[in-house]
Design goal:
By secondary structure, this protein is of the alpha/beta class. The protein is built from 14 helices and 13 strands. The radius of gyration is 20 Å and the shape is globular.
Length: 344
Amino acid sequence: MKLMIDDAVWGFSEIFSEFGEVITLPGRQINHKSLLDCDVLIVRSRTKVNEELLKGTKIQFVGSTVAGLDHIDEAYLRENNITFASAQGCNANAVAEYIISAIANLSNDFNFKLSGKTLGIIGVGNVGSRLDFKAKQLGMNTILNDPPREANEGSDNFAPLDKVLTADIVSFHTPLIFSGAHPTYNLLGSHNFNIIKEDAIVINAARGGIIDETIWQNTATKANVIDCWENEPNINSTLQKSAYWSTPHIAGHSIDAKFMGSFMIYKELCKFKQKPIKNRIEKLINPESRTIEKNTLHETLNSIYPFIDDHLAIKDILKFEDYRRNYPDRFEWRHFKTRFDIVN
């Protein structure tokens, strides 16, 4: 069996070589011709998996080691009996940690207390629910908006979008959806951007296209934190220059998240091939615990991982894609001992 794997997939050799011959390419270079003699395709977000890519190939199994799904034509895979496995949720904790780190830095730099601040969370799935928990542990008030969950669970824990947009900090965590009952494309745009307060903080670590960037770049806010952009890697230079943090779609790029993305697809491929899961795979992430001797949340989180480095790294926009592909190692909070409990 031959496997084509995006060369940015974490641990591709250690994890997937037992299934057969592994061939790797950068995600953007995986094309129809490269797949003609392959049986398995494992990608991240940079490969568009659709009829154009797969028609006439022998691909039987497609795995995506990232949380998003907008690069996958699931209908085509179903119609052609190609097994699909997704790693949705694999990077949820990493993204939530990114948001809390951003908020802690903003609190320090703009001299405000987190306790009592209102955080509006739009999209309360894998990421949003973790962010909700962490924010509440820090004394923040949260307002939640998630129409699909509200339809299933009732309105008691949810608020209309217009109300959530009045929060002190507004953070987006929805998938990018263009049609259906709950589209999210330009969810924040010309029809409602006026609701955002001038002293609000706006965060997009979800998907480019959820916020209308042509409106955003001309709207005054206290600060913007932007990790996800339209037209990546050719991002909006006006927004980039004005953002508090502008990072290259790396909020979920912890080592833990990358491992979990690979491991989730590994388990599904084992199931597909009817092979047992090997215990050694689960133990590939086992760094030594490190102690952080800092007295504040701001200092502690920046000692664990300084996201400002990611902001500075792409001052030159041309470095966007290269920096993502060669991202520094970053471990999640659970691997560190601190003077006080970090919210996990």
